[in-house]
Amino acid sequence: MYPDLNGKTVIITGAATGIGKACAIRFGQESANVVINYHSDKQVKETEKIIEEIKHSGGNAVAVQGDVTKEEDIKNLIRSAVETFGSLDIMINNAGIENEVPSHELTLEDWNKVISTNLTGQFLGCREALDYFLENDIQGSIVNMSSVHEIIPWPHFVHYAASKGGIKLMTQTLALEYAPKKIRINSIAPGAINTPINAEKFSDPKLKEGVLKLIPMGYIGEPEEIAATAVWLASTQASYVTGLTLIADGGMTLYPGFQAGKG
Ligand code: NAI
């Protein structure tokens, strides 16, 4: 547990499902005030359940609809956090999408959609949180959800890999720029995690087996294992950590082909 998160206010984008949802619940368990951003009206019921769970575990929560690609929606997220809970201390830029297309067939529309959600959306979240922190003299913390694909090339997902590679240097650049203000900016690079983004892939036993072969620890990660890294990075336990990509991937980036001297 991280006692310093008690009473802190955190915004989590794309928090109705998967990793974002697990982060919301975990911050709630740490008695934080959680702003759950969700994208579509279809997610309202799920967010109500998350709020109930958070309140039950001692935290406080509110759900705010918003599209991370829209400046006004991000500004509204910050406004809602401050109006509801009085401040903002932590921003978790988590929302992201992917789709599989051979690169020579990728439309400009698809490219723009992934880049604007995964990269521009995270930039807007960083910019607005930084602006608020600076204006209010808050030594806040930002965590961006990257991916092992900020390192590992991924055929048929060039827009996704480019967005995550972009998050890496965006995180490092912002970390350097705002370190003198004691604002910390880090990211997390999950490997293969059991969430809706992978539901189709993992429901096919052959595809799942193929993914498992790439994970030295031998299992698909759970969203709670990523949430555990997010609370640590956001807490004062990580007070001297900035510009880091924390890799949580069961060893996926360790060149698994070299395991047991097979390389
Ligand atoms: P997910 O599909 O459950 O979560 C993504 C969330 O983002 C959804 O709730 C969706 O509604 C929301 N979203 C999409 N577009 C949005 C928009 N324009 N505005 C606001 N919200 C929007 O999938 P998951 O796995 O939880 O993904 C969360 C993050 O983790 C993403 O950035 C993803 O790239 C990253 N990640 C996931 C991995 C995995 O294996 N599940 C591995 C590496 C990274």
Assigned CATH architecture: 3-Layer(aba) Sandwich
Order of helices and strands: EHEHEHEHEHEHHHE
CATH top level class name: Alpha Beta
* Radius of gyration over C-alpha positions, nearest whole angstrom: 18 Å
What is the terminal-to-terminal distance?
Answer: 40 Å
Query: Helix/strand/pairing class, anyone?
Result: alpha/beta
What name is given to the CATH topology? Answer: Rossmann fold
Count of runs of 4 or more consecutive helical residues: 8
> Per the principal axes of the C-alpha atoms, what is the gross shape?
globular
Bound ligands, each once: 1,4-dihydronicotinamide adenine dinucleotide
Total strand count, please? Answer: 7
Neighbour order of strands in the largest sheet: 3-2-1-4-5-6-7
Q: What's the name of the CATH homologous superfamily?
A: NAD(P)-binding Rossmann-like Domain
pLDDT < 50 runs, ≥5 residues:
none
- Please state roughly what percent of the residues sit in beta strands, choosing from under 5%, 5-15%, 15-25%, 25-35%, 35-45% or over 45%: 5-15%
Arithmetic mean of pLDDT: 97
Task: Characterise the protein shown here.
With 263 residues, the protein is α/β, with parallel strands linked by helices. The chain has a single domain, classed as Rossmann fold. Helix content is 43%, strand content 14%. The protein has 8 helices and 7 strands. It has a 7-stranded parallel beta sheet, with helices on both faces. β1, α1 (18-29) and β2 (33-38) form a beta-alpha-beta unit. The longest helix is centred in the middle third of the chain and has 28 residues, at 108-135. The radius of gyration is 18 Å and the shape is globular. The model has no long low-confidence stretch (mean pLDDT 97). Residues 13-14, 16-20, 39, 67-69, 94-97, 117, 121, 145, 147, 190, 192-193, 195-198 line the site of 1,4-dihydronicotinamide adenine dinucleotide.
